[in-house]
């Protein structure tokens, strides 16, 4: 007999619908699986046979052929075990064909018939809903993760026997066997709180750096923090999360799908409700940053999507590691080519980089003991193209002892965050229907449209362009920052004051890289 079961597998950041075709015929007993299969999938034949036997299902001595189509797509992992088992059960007549219509089945099997958790249930469920399936059968431990997707029933099973019992029940009464999981994703997001995060009020002084980070949070701009050791660069970056706007439902689902593929959704959670904040050590490898493997999983750059990538001691990272970010910072995606295909992962991260100005950390203070060639070699680890992609540069100076011993009243993160949220609301209304959310994401055409300058402002901007010696990319980034500063003030027009402040943050690095 013949049967066909719908299943799904993750390929890079996306999920692909597959069909498990099973044929059981008379002949020399055997179990054959075809369809461009990896070793893990080929091994599933033996796992499924033993699991069904231990679940009390007798498999006759027949010729069993399983084809997983489409044949030109490489299949890897153990996610197809449960679908192969369902295909055999349907071909044997244990389960009727009509009982599996509109049902997508995924899961890994243990030899005792237990259904084990898998990665990527969230994108798989999204793909099933888009494909028109009414039910998705997943491992019980993954059911809440898939339930954040609306428009499809997500049913968690703990064993093959439980799946059989569910499929044998008429569709109208299946909820009495296993009730589909339901999750209100919007409520999860609204219940999220940032109260436990470190607060900007704990940092005394550094008002200029705080202003730069507020602008960065409002427009999703990249920031470079330069200053001596102990000045507070790392403290500022860690508290940056406390002024970021809350995630929208769309952003949360996008981030959660990435973490689902990586198998990194925390136990007991079904949704990522906080913006990612990743701070890799400077010994991190290229593969860890971009994503590695025969079928590459998401790397640190992708895991920081819609969040913050904090790179402390920036020049200590390998030159190759630093420069590999040039393309993702510009295109907001990262392409990884393998023999199995090209995988495109999202990379809309916000880079916060912190560094000392020289090997000892104290240049240009008189305490610095570095020679000029040593300073030049140290700074040259950050290439010009990377500096060109940094929207804002802030100098974090040493705090005076008076500010530490008799601190004044510092502005709390909650107050700053409200201004950031108001500016983001202006941008959301401005870019409605364009596919982008923040000023930093504008392309050249959008900059021309949304950052129009008056005659006086154009003349002033032209003078700045010549005096500072900006590239075309840097000039566009300057206009984006000026647009964000105007949004923070609630101004519809970009004024000379906004341009001047934006230019000041574009030239702060020249004190170190191009000293007079």
Outline the secondary-structure elements.
Elements: E1 2-11, E2 14-25, E3 30-34, H1 39-54, E4 63-69, H2 81-92, E5 103-105, E6 108-109, E7 115-116, H3 121-131, E8 135-139, H4 143-146, E9 153-157, H5 160-168, H6 185-190, H7 207-219, E10 223-226, H8 233-240, H9 249-262, E11 277-278, H10 286-290, H11 300-303, E12 308-311, H12 319-323, H13 326-331, E13 333-338, E14 341-346, E15 350-355, H14 372-379, H15 384-388, E16 392-395, H16 401-405, H17 413-430, H18 444-450, H19 455-468, H20 472-488, H21 496-507, H22 510-513
Helix pairs in contact: 1-2, 7-17, 7-20, 19-21, 20-21
Walk me through the structure.
With 516 residues, the chain is of the alpha/beta class. It has two domains: 2-183, 2-Layer Sandwich (Ribosomal Protein S5, domain 2); 200-513, P-loop containing nucleotide triphosphate hydrolases (Rossmann fold). Helix content is 39%, strand content 16%. The chain has 22 helices and 16 strands. The protein has helices at residues 39-54, 81-92, 121-131, 143-146, 160-168, 185-190, 207-219, 233-240, 249-262, 286-290, 300-303, 319-323, 326-331, 372-379, 384-388, 401-405, 413-430, 444-450, 455-468, 472-488, 496-507, 510-513; strands at 2-11, 14-25, 30-34, 63-69, 103-105, 108-109, 115-116, 135-139, 153-157, 223-226, 277-278, 308-311, 333-338, 341-346, 350-355, 392-395. The strands form five sheets. Strands 11-12-15-10-16 form a five-stranded parallel β-sheet. The chain has a four-stranded mixed β-sheet with strand order 1-2-4-3. A three-stranded parallel β-sheet has the order 5-8-9, sandwiched between helices. The model has no long low-confidence stretch (mean pLDDT 90).
